[in-house]
Write a structure and sequence with these properties.
Residues 1-23 form the signal peptide. This protein is α+β, with helices and mostly antiparallel strands. It has helices spanning 3-31, 76-92, 94-102, and strands spanning 39-48, 61-69, 107-111, 117-119. Strands 1-2-3-4 form a four-stranded mixed sheet, with helices on one face.
Length: 121
């Protein structure tokens, strides 16, 4: 194997492992936000609105971070505090915010059920 070929393989490996590393870091970070008896981290979904032109001032690409609360009825104050806790966890991780921004994300939303989302960033 030539040196040039080895460098190309190493560069390709770094290129393809970067999104996985970011996703793995996001999963680890978010799975540790709440105690197990309060909320469970389900995962996240990337959404890109193709119907909005790239030049529009409206958010086009965003991330939905999904949790499920363990109790079926949650007071709005408790829900608001939970949203705040997730958002602050994300905001404190400057490297993650930079990676998301570099990947083109305009916004992060938090969901605790299938009916509603709360915007973070």
């Amino acid at each position: 194997m030539t040196r040039h070929h080895a460098l190309r393989i190493a560069a390709a490996a770094l290129l393809f492992s970067a999104p996985f590393a970011q996703a793995e870091n996001l999963d680890i970070l978010l799975s540790q936000v709440f105690p197990k008896d309060h909320a469970t981290y389900i995962g996240y979904e990337s959404v890109e609105r193709q119907d909005i032109p790239a030049s529009a001032p409206v958010d086009r690409k965003y991330l939905i971070v999904d949790f499920r609360l363990t109790s079926s009825q949650v007071a709005s104050e408790q829900l608001q505090a939970s949203v705040h806790k997730v958002c602050m966890t994300l905001l404190k991780d400057r490297e993650l915010i930079r990676q998301l921004s570099d990947s083109g994300y305009d916004m992060v939303s938090v969901a605790f059920d299938r009916r509603s989302q709360f915007d973070c960033l």
